[in-house]
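User: what does the whole thing look like in 3D?
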Amino acid sequence: MRTFRMGSVAALLLTLCAARPAAAQQANAGADGNRATIMLGVSMLHETYGSGWGGDVEVTGAPTWSPLRIGWVAETGFNAFDGFGEFTVMGGVRFGPRQGAMFRPFAKLMAGLQYCHACDTLDPTFEPAAGVDVALGGSGRVSIRGLVGYRITPSERETFKEVHVQVGLTIAIGAGR
Amino acid sequence: MSRAVLGLLRGLVVVLPCVLSAAGCNNGSPTRPTPAFLRKAVVSDFNITGSGTLLGVGQTTVLGATMKTPQGVGNVTQVVTWSSLDPNIATVSPAGVVTSVGVGTTTVKATFDAQEASLRIDVLELSGLSVGGALVNNALLFNALNVTSQLSLTATYPGGITRQVAALATWSSNNPAIASVTGAGLVRAIGYGSTTITATYLTKSISVNVTVTPALSFVSISGNVTLTAIGQTSALTAIARYADASTKDVTTEAIWTSSNVSVVTVSSSGVISATGLGQATVQAAYLTRTGFANVQVSPPGTFVLSGRVRDPGQGQSSGLGVPGFTVRDVATGIVTTTDSSGGYTLAGVLPGDRVIYEKGGWETVERVFNSVNDDSSPGVQRVISISAGSTAVISTAPNDVIYQLQPGGTCTPCRLIRVNSSTSGTLHLRLTWGGTSPRLNLWVAGVTYSVASPGAIEVVADIPIGAGETVVYAGLVGGQPFATGYMTLTLATTILPAPNSLVPLQPVRAVRDDRRKR
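Assistant: Here's the predicted 3D structure for the full assembly of 695 residues, as structure tokens:
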């Protein structure tokens, strides 16, 4: 089990390293015409031991590497289950279209750490997710977020698998071109 | 990850549910974990807490269940599923409350998912009850109205287990007009008479008798207490007399004892039996009072003489007892010796018998007894032997031995001094004492030698004596006896004229002139 956990941590580090070049390209985000965003949302995690409601905060850098629109993403969230809670901090890469469109589907691949209150453990966690931002109004600075992810958390006793559903409000920040 | 980070995360996890969920603040507490918490966490040490012993059918005991979680030991009583292997012995509620149904042993289990904990339940059968309190022969006695007495009730179970169940029992009085009882066993005297208090607990009951009587004044003993032959018996009766002048025959209830079983024995029913000549005191103790009777065993026509030989010069109202005195009935030849307190008993004394009290160093006293009522407690004086040229120091105190020294004159306190000389001559005596009062005198052969002047502390006299014994009394003559206090006399003697005609003075046997005036 310990070997598995070490492997998980190594995978997490690799994912984070893969994201760094995208972050390094942030300076070119303006040329792409997109903006960085912040998302505030409510979320639900569903697993074997029940469903936990909570909230997420996500920050994304301006996408680059057109046409894949790869950019960095960081997210933190908390979910309260029946009698316990989970706190997560993750980072990774985001694949998304231009912000100019009304429907902007995207995908995320994130890795991070999750604190399990009931277990009193801090475990690596991974989450591939897909969602869509739907622009509100003509400016397109404000969007409604919908997302579904699948979170995998290898822990000491077992690997927790959770479906992550997120609904929120995405706000573009900074000056786009 | 450092402990600080973990601590921060733990804090966030505790606080955030309060923000995000109205009900979340109480959830997740390590003391009361939820099922989801327990399933998510790695738990261990699943235990049942509480006593598995139930004392009797229909009793309950509350069990609890705990699990050790990563956040501490949690109370999972309400989370687990409770079950009893034999509901005919004990049932268990979803909250862990066990109720005994029948006597025996079973097991109660607490189950959570695949985990299980169990506890043996023993339902014991009540084996007995006992009542405690101020009981005398299993009876509660009151000698006044409106007083209370608390009874205790002890339930006994197999294995020596006991419980105080006075507050749990049902108490009742057979006659509340005589004694009432509260639900906790507090008995109150209401009226005179007897009744029964009963305590019932579970399947058993126990009763105690309650008697309410007026205050006991005293116990008297009646019956023939003069026995004339060894082996003779007499049935005595003990009568309790109460404050309201009522009486009760308590012969069989009293505790009988004899002060001297070599003289008389007494049975539990008050029958005395002579075992030897003499006198003994028989007691009948009943509740708080004891009756006394002097039993005499003496042949027909005789009586038992008992008394105390005492030294009246040693303080106390009647003087200290003098042990070791020989008390001899001259006629019968029966001899006894005074005990450590000066007491003696002389049986078989015929009216008119002379009794002589003797002890070396003390004056010998002779008494004639015509009945048992004659004074049989003589006061005796030490014999002070003094030789020529010597000095004696005598401590004395007011006493009741009054010597008739001359017509109209008495000596008290006194000390008797006997001087024995082989020749005639002059006895030179010097009597001194401390202080200026009282005025002491010497009295010799009918002559009083007084102090020269008031306030003097000595008397000096040259007394002509013949060969043989000369009796000297030193003391206060013709005055008022001392009321209290001690005095110390110093007596110095010289016998004149010819020193070579003197011989050391020796104590002599003498019989006191018993012309006593009390």
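In plain terms: Residues 19-28, 481-486, 497-518 of chain B have pLDDT under 50 and may be disordered. Chain B touches chain A through 28 residues (CB under 8 Å).
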